[in-house]
Amino acid sequence: MRDAYTVEAVRKAEDVLMARGPEGALMQRAAAGLAAVCARLLPRVYGARVVLLVGSGDNGGDALYAGARLARRGAAVLAVLAADRVHEGGLAALRAAGGRVSADRADARAAIAAADLVVDGLLGIGGRGGLREPHAALAAHAADSAALVVAVDLPSGVDAGTGAVEGPAVRADVTVTFGGYKPGLLIDPGAGRAGVLELVDIGLGPELPPAHVRSPQAADIAALLPGPGAESDKYRRGVLAMASGSDRYSGAAVLSVGGALRGGVGMLRYAGQAGVVAKVLDRWPEVVATVLEPTDPVAGLPQRVAAWVVGPGRGLHPAAVVELRTVLGTGLPVLLDADAITLLAEEPDLVRDRSAPTLLTPHAGELARLLPGVDRADIEARRLAHATRAAAEFGCTVLLKGSTTIIAEPGRPAIVNPTGTPLLATAGTGDVLAGLIGAMLASGLAPRDAAVCGAYLHGLAARLACGGAPISASDLLGAIPAAFRALR
Ligand SMILES: NC(=O)C1=CN([C@@H]2O[C@H](COP(=O)(O)OP(=O)(O)OC[C@H]3O[C@@H](n4cnc5c(N)ncnc54)[C@H](O)[C@@H]3O)[C@@H](O)[C@H]2O)[C@@H](O)CC1
Ligand SMILES: [K+]
C-alpha cells in the first residue's frame, strides 16, 4: 500500500522530529536519499552534467545538499538560483564541494539544454498555485531538454494535497519524495507530472497519523480477491442480479454481463427487455435470463441474489425509475452506474435513506449531476475533494471514474487506483467495470474492497490488452483473465 499524508500531517511529524534531533538532520537524510537516487539513475556520476533548479525554500535546500554530494563524487554541478535568497547552508555546502552557482538566465538555459540530469528543487510542499517567473521559464527549459528530470519531494507547480496543477508545472521522470507520499503524487493531473515515485524514509513514520489517501499495490489486491476454494459452488461464489442495457443500448448489457462473468461471479441473473435478453444469451449462454413484461417491469426481477448492478445503458424512462426504487428497497448490496446515477439525481433520498451497502460509480459528468453547483471541469480538477464530498453527502461508497479513479467512503481514507490508463477512455469500458465490481460484491466483498479490486483489475486488463495500442471494451473483456493471472 502506498500511504499519502496531508501537508499539515507531514509538517507536524517533521516538527516533532526536529524538536528531538540535531538541527538540519532531516534535511540531511532527505538530501542523502535524493543524491543516492540521482546517482543510481545516472550511467556514471563522475563527469555527469547536473543542473539544480533552486527555489527560496527548503526544497531548494534539499537540492543543494544533494548536489554537493554529487559534486564530491565528481559530477559537474551547476545551481541555477530562481530567488535572491536561497538556503544558505545548502549553498555553502555546494560551493565547498566544488559546485558552481549562477543566476544568469541565458547561462541557465544553455546549461539545462546540455545537462544529463536536472534536479527540480524549485518548490516542495510550501508551493502555492502554478509556477511564477522565473520558475515557469526554468520548468519550460527542463521540459525542452533531453536531460532526465528528477523532482525533489514533488514536481514544482503541483498541489501537494490534491494533485491540482494551476498553471505551469515541472514534468518529472522521477520524483523522490520524503517521509510519506503526498496525495498530489497519486492523483491526476499531478500524478501524471510525477513520473516514477521513489520514497525516501526520513524517520517520520511513527509520528504520522493514519493515511489520508491510500494507493493499493498488486499484493494488496491479491490479498483482497476472493478465490474459489474446494468448498465453493455457484451459490457460495455469489449470485449477481443485473438490470443493465435496453433495446436501444443492448451493448451495455452484453459488456456489463461480460465484466461480471469474467470477474468470477458464481451465477448471473439478467433481467431486461426481450430483444436485449436474446443478445445477452447469444453472447453469454451461461446467463440465467428473465424477460421483463412491459406492463409490470418489476414483477420478474430476480430474487434470491447476493447483490445488484443497476444502470448501464438502462435508460431514463418511468419503468427504469420504478425498477431503481424496487432494487434500492431491498436490503442487498447495490451498485448504481450510469443511467441509475442520473435518475438518482432526481431522487437522492433513495440512497441517502438507505442503510444497506451502496456503491455509486459515476464519471465526472454524472457526479456533477449529483452535486448541485459543481461542473464537470471542477470535478476533474479536484477529484479527491469531490469524491469525498459525494460519499459524505450520500452516506455511501463512491467510485469516481476518470484519469485517476478514486474510491471514497465516509470515515475511511480515500483510495486511489494506480492502474488507470488513458486507453480506458472509450465507450463501453465503464459497463465492463460495473460488471466486474458487481461480481466482487456478489462474492461478499464490502463495496469499498469490491470497488478497489474491480478498478485495479480493470486498469491492469487495459494495460495488458494490447500493449499500449488502442483498445475497445470487448478487448478489455478478453484481457480480464490475464489481469487475474498477473496477480496470482
Ligand atoms: N521541514 C522539514 O523538516 C523538511 C523539509 N524538507 C523539504 O522542504 C520542503 C518544504 O520547504 P518550504 O516549506 O521551505 O517550502 P518550499 O521549498 O516548498 O517553497 C516555499 C517558497 O516558495 C515560494 N513560492 C510558493 N509558491 C510559489 C509559486 N507558485 N511560484 C514561485 N514561488 C513560490 C514561497 O514564497 C516560499 O518562499 C519540502 O517539500 C521538502 O523538500 C526536507 O528537507 C525534509 C525535511
Ligand atoms: K520540487
TrEMBL record:
GO terms for biological process: metabolite repair; nicotinamide nucleotide metabolic process. InterPro entries: Carbohydrate_kinase_pred_CS, CARKD, Nnr, Ribokinase-like, YjeF_N_dom, YjeF_N_dom_sf. K(+) binds at residues 59, 120, 156. The keyword Acyltransferase does not apply. Its EC number is 4.2.1.136, 5.1.99.6. SUPFAM superfamilies: Ribokinase-like, YjeF N-terminal domain-like. Its cofactor is K(+); Mg(2+). Residues 10-210 form the YjeF N-terminal domain. Keywords: ATP-binding, Isomerase, Kinase, Lyase, Metal-binding, Multifunctional enzyme, NAD, NADP, Nucleotide-binding, Potassium, Transferase. GO terms for molecular function: ADP-dependent NAD(P)H-hydrate dehydratase activity; ATP binding; kinase activity; metal ion binding; NAD(P)HX epimerase activity. (6S)-NADPHX binds at residues 58-62, 124-130, 153, 252, 313, 363, 431. PANTHER family: ATP-DEPENDENT (S)-NAD(P)H-HYDRATE DEHYDRATASE, ATP-DEPENDENT (S)-NAD(P)H-HYDRATE DEHYDRATASE FAMILY MEMBER. Bifunctional enzyme that catalyzes the epimerization of the S- and R-forms of NAD(P)HX and the dehydration of the S-form of NAD(P)HX at the expense of ADP, which is converted to AMP. This allows the repair of both epimers of NAD(P)HX, a damaged form of NAD(P)H that is a result of enzymatic or heat-dependent hydration. This is Bifunctional NAD(P)H-hydrate repair enzyme. It comes from Murinocardiopsis flavida.
